[in-house]
Amino acid sequence: MKDDAEELVQCARFGEVEELEALLTLQERDLAVLAADGALGALEPEVRALDDQLAGVERELAAARRAIEAARTRRESLEGKIASYRNMQEQRRQRLEWVRGAKEASTLMAELDLTRTVLAKEEAEFLRSRGAVARYTVEQGQPHRLDTLAGPRARRLFDGFDAARKGCSR
To answer: How far is CA 84 from the centre of its chain?
Structure first.
């Protein structure tokens, strides 16, 4: 019986050891979970900062998309205006071919000059809307052609070409 009693005590102790080992393993796992929770908590401010940064970038993206859409709408409007002015210009040119009286011819020439001026302004605006540098000027006394850029005075024209090649500013 003594052997049986000792064996029972050893079994009981072995069971206690197994339980103790299981509790130690559980305690280690609990400590690992607590450490992971602590690490996650430490990352929370960084996560909030990144979320705020993302929200800011999303707002900027939305604003850029609105600006692109506004520019697209403006460009389409300018294209429509330019096409309309060109059409009007062509109609006036055709009418000028059939004009007989000096007064009517003078009126049509004035309309052509006005339309040409408006068309040039709209085309310059269209080029600016596409990112190009465009300047529009009216040369005094030169309604139909620019004699001021002919012959020895052509330097202005070529200076403008050089400036465009170098990426001149507005």
So the answer is: 29
CA atoms of 32 and 43, how far apart (whole Å): 17
164 CA to centre of own chain: 24
Q: How far apart are CA 72 and CA 66, in angstroms?
A: 10
Domain map (residue ranges) of the chain: 2-132
3-class DSSP state for residue 142? coil
Question: With 80 as the cut, is the pLDDT of residue 28 above it?
Answer: yes
The predicted structure's pLDDT at residue 75: 84
Q: Which is nearest to 142 in space by CA: 120, 164, 122, 113?
A: 113
Task: Identify the helix (H) or strand (E) that includes residue 136.
Answer: none
Q: Are 161 and 146 in contact (CB under 8 A)?
A: no
CA dist list (Å): 90 to 12, 85, 118: 111, 9, 14
By the 10 Å C-beta count (0-12 exposed, 13-18 middle, 19+ buried), 3 is classed as exposed
Which residue stretches of the chain are H helix? 2-98, 102-129, 155-166
Cβ-in-10-Å burial (0-12, 13-18, 19+) of 122 comes to buried
Position 121 confidence tier, pLDDT thresholds 50, 70, 90: confident
Q: What is the pTM of this model?
A: 0.47
